[in-house]
């Protein structure tokens, strides 16, 4: 049997879309969503946990009541700095502030205290703050193809998995495309993205323990091995194992155990316990 594309391609697209949605909604750097205001007039507000470029990170809170004011408190993490507290300024229908820019992989922790018609609402606390990590700006011409090839490799990987499960002969050729896509998106463009964002090309094994780099390395080695095996003789099991490994790697939230700037040493290292703020 040559292929089962009428069945396997829609299935592969579905699994890839689920993966994209999962990656966009998990991980410690995606915005923290909080309901602001009373039940009848409450609004869902996103608070940033990542910021790129050389500008300060903007914080915007919509005014859910005419009589509304608030403060934001922040400090560098991990340090023994004292908290800095500033008043949110009114700008149209928003209360705004900015968090000072930090070195690539530098982090701040922050929380807000909002006075809404005389009632205080906390967004984070001193003991349970919101984390925000800073990064350098990654050019679109680098970031866009990186993202494209990474999700293309997932699509091809799942397609190879289903084709191998149906015992067709097409899975071997798809395994070569998967390996090539993973190599371009992850092993070539990935380090370039990391260099722009955090100042280092590679923070995984054997230099450090960045989980994003390490899970990429593991996935690529499995698919590279499967491709080599299939070049000698098509092997369904090898391709299926490599595909399952890649799926498992994508199941780990992005940026967990990522790079972190050490303010004492003045260097970027890996925070092995990930962000504490998992929401």
Can you walk through the features of this model?
With 279 residues, the chain is α+β, with helices and mostly antiparallel strands. The protein has 2 domains: 5-27 and 138-270, no CATH class; 32-135, Immunoglobulin-like, CATH 2.60.40.10. The chain contains 5 helices and 13 strands. The protein has helices at residues 5-25, 140-165, 171-198, 211-232, 236-251; strands at 32-36, 43-47, 50-52, 57-62, 68-77, 84-87, 89-91, 94-99, 107-116, 119-123, 130-135, 259-262, 267-270. Strands 3, 5, 6, 9, 10 and 11 form a 6-stranded mixed beta sheet that branches. A hairpin with a 6-residue loop joins strand 1 and strand 2 (43-47). Helix 2 crosses helix 5, helix 3 (171-198) runs antiparallel to helix 4 and helix 4 runs antiparallel to helix 5 (236-251).
Short summary:
This protein has 279 residues and is α+β, with helices and mostly antiparallel strands.
Overview features:
single chain; 279 residues; alpha+beta; Immunoglobulin-like; 2 domains; six-stranded mixed sheet; three-stranded antiparallel sheet; 5 helices; 13 strands; elongated; disordered C terminus
| Residue windows where pLDDT falls under 50 for at least 5 positions | 272-279
Class derived from helix and strand content? alpha+beta
- Could you tell me the number of beta strands? 13
Q: How are helices and strands ordered from N to C?
A: HEEEEEEEEEEEHHHHEE
The tally of helices reads 5
Domain count, please report it: 2
Radius of gyration, rounded?
Answer: 22 Å
Largest sheet, strands/sense/barrel: 6 strands, mixed
Binned, the helix content reads 40-55%
Integer average pLDDT: 89
Q: How far do the termini sit from each other?
A: 47 Å
Beta content comes to: 25-35%
Tell me, briefly, the overall form: elongated
């Amino acid at each position: 049997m040559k292929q089962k594309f009428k069945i396997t391609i829609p299935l592969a697209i579905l699994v890839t879309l689920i993966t994209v949605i999962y990656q966009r909604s998990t991980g410690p750097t995606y915005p923290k969503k909080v309901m602001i205001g009373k039940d009848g007039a409450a609004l869902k507000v996103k608070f940033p946990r990542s910021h790129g470029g050389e500008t300060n990170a903007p914080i915007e809170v919509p005014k859910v009541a005419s009589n509304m004011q608030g403060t934001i408190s922040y400090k560098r993490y991990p340090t023994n700095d004292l908290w800095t507290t500033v008043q949110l300024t009114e700008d149209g229908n928003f209360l705004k502030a900015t968090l000072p820019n930090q070195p690539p992989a530098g982090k701040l922790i922050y929380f807000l205290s909002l006075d809404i018609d005389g009632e205080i609402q906390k967004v984070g606390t001193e003991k349970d703050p919101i984390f925000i990590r800073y990064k350098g700006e990654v050019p679109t011409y680098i970031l866009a193809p990186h993202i494209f090839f990474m999700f293309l490799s997932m699509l091809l990987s799942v397609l190879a998995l289903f084709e191998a499960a149906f015992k067709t002969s097409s899975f071997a050729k798809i395994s070569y495309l998967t390996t090539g896509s993973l190599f371009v998106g992850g092993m070539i463009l990935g380090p370039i993205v990391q260099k722009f964002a955090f100042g280092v090309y590679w923070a995984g094994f054997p230099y450090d323990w960045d989980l994003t780099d390490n899970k990429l390395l593991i996935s690529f080695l499995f698919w590279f091995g499967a491709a080599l095996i299939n070049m000698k003789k098509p092997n369904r099991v090898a391709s299926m194992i490599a595909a399952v490994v890649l799926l498992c790697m994508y199941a780990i939230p992005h940026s967990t155990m990522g790079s972190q700037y050490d303010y004492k040493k003045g260097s970027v290292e890996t925070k092995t316990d990930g962000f504490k703020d998992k929401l």
